[in-house]
Amino acid sequence: MSQMGMWVRMAVLGAAGAGLVACGGGSGSSSSSDDGGTGQMSLAVTDAPVDSAERVVVRFTHVELQPADGERITIEFDEEDEENSVREIDLLALQGEDSEFLFEDEEVTAGDYSWIRFHLEPEEGASAPPLSNYATSSFIEFVGGYSENLTIPGGLQAGLQLSSGFSVPEDGAVSLTVDFDLRKAIREDPRFEDYHRMRRSLRLVDNDTAGSITGTVDPALLPDGYTCEDRGEDGVEACPGAAVYVFEGEDREPVDLRDTEDDAITTANVEYRHVEEDGDWEYRYTAGFIEPGDYTVALTFEADEDDPEEETPIDFVDQANATVEAGETTEVDFTGSDD
To answer: For bias kind Acidic residues, which ranges apply (predicted)?
Structure first.
């Protein structure tokens, strides 16, 4: 995870409803309101992966936080390059238990919050409206090097909003991670040729209570003739279509993504990995940042055929139950047996 520097808080005076703004750079004063206490907040991002892509680079300009009762807070990024306040993160590099902080130990007003909104940098070369109202400089790069910029369906001003409540304890701290579920979020944009759209498929997790699920896949479960691909990363090969879906509750009947409440909460790619300890290779998956509870994990080799916006039945070859505990990693191997 990358480390951010200290942050300075700045109250911005202006028209009513202007809110509060925080800017990174050094030590500074609190931006909380006069009649409320403060706490510290850290926010990281991670990714549930998408097939056929090598990079998904998202360029964040700032984040907005909306208290349940109070002025909106804007957190801007102050990078080492003083002329560039954009945080550029390759989300596809943050799979499993990997994440990267957008900001750490930021002093904000204590209390309950209603939503988080992420704003992305506009595409500089976008043509006139309507494209310029939606196009960003963020992009998806496919296997082979071809890339397309990303649009925000609700428009640049609306950003990517996560309407999931959270709380910042007074004189305490909270550390959160937002899962950008790219398998659900990124699709071709039917309105604009040569663009992909990035839907608001976001999941908020408290890092203090999160656990993970990991395990191996028995090679006997692989379809006949199935092979993984070397994409230039030492000790790792990508396995197209091979993924594990994580559903809330035990003994769930696994289904494809359909943009409903019954969807898997997250997915994890299966990769063919070199095991340094014994020099062998194994098929392994890891699904990180999962809240404590009971889950069903299901294995498919057809994830690359799954359209998250409509019913596209895919075959799940094995499934198992898993219990996640805070701060723990649960091991669930797919063996094809009933044990």
So the answer is: 328-339
What is the DSSP code string of 77-128?
A: ---SSTT--PEEEEGGG--TT--EEEEEEEEEE-EEEEEEEEEEPBPTT--S
- The span from the CA of 203 to the CA of 140, in Å, is 20
Q: Which two tokens stand for residue 166?
A: 């959270």
Q: Name the residue with higher pLDDT: 134 or 21.
A: 134
pLDDT at 310: 87
**Which residues are registered as beta bridge partners of 267?**
245
Is the same domain home to 239 and 294?
A: yes
Together in a domain, 185 and 140? yes
Rounded (10°) CA dihedral 213, 218, 219, 221 = -90
- Using CA atoms, how far apart are residues 106 and 43, in angstroms rounded to an integer? 9
Q: What domain count does the chain have?
A: 2
Name which of 119, 198, 197, 200 is nearest 164 in CA terms. 200
Does the pLDDT value for residue 62 go beyond 50? yes
Residue whose token pair is 């063919």: 272
pLDDT in tens, 116-129: 999 999 999 887 88
CA-based nearest residue to 182, from 301, 90, 290 = 90
**Amino acid letter for position 97:** E
